[in-house]
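Session log. Operator J.P. requested a structure for one protein chain; no other inputs attached. Running the standard single-chain path with token output.
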Amino acid sequence: MRAMMFAVLVLAACAQPAGPVVAQPPAQSPVAQQIRADLQRLDRELHAQGVVVAAIGETADLGGGLTVRPLAVIEDSRCPNNVQCIWAGRLRLRAHVSGEEVELTLGEALSTSRGSVMLAVVSPGPWAEWPTAELGAKPAYRFGFTRN
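Structure written below.
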């Protein structure tokens, strides 16, 4: 019996990898994986042709004298991606559009004397939870504007 136990231990020792054991990064939670995928999708949308990006305090120049400078998020009641909601919610943004203070709503065009502008994309998307330990701090808003 002892000989058999010894043989099992010897075989188990032989099965161990030679050299140092490399620590594997911890697997990300499903929510963190979904958020990363959503951030990548939104980044592609922000870099799409015809989209001009600005953060709070920056100016997006859409050409022809049409500029947008986001000032503050008034409301972000968008339904979180990982929650089931009755109402989709909305994002409202206070901004200077060609020098005039206005309110923009995600997905709605605003006509001005210099042309029509739309807040077309906002990153990050809405999430009910943000796994800071896995993803770090939630990134600052970035807004994508299009000229209509």
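Operator note: The longest strand covers residues 67-76.
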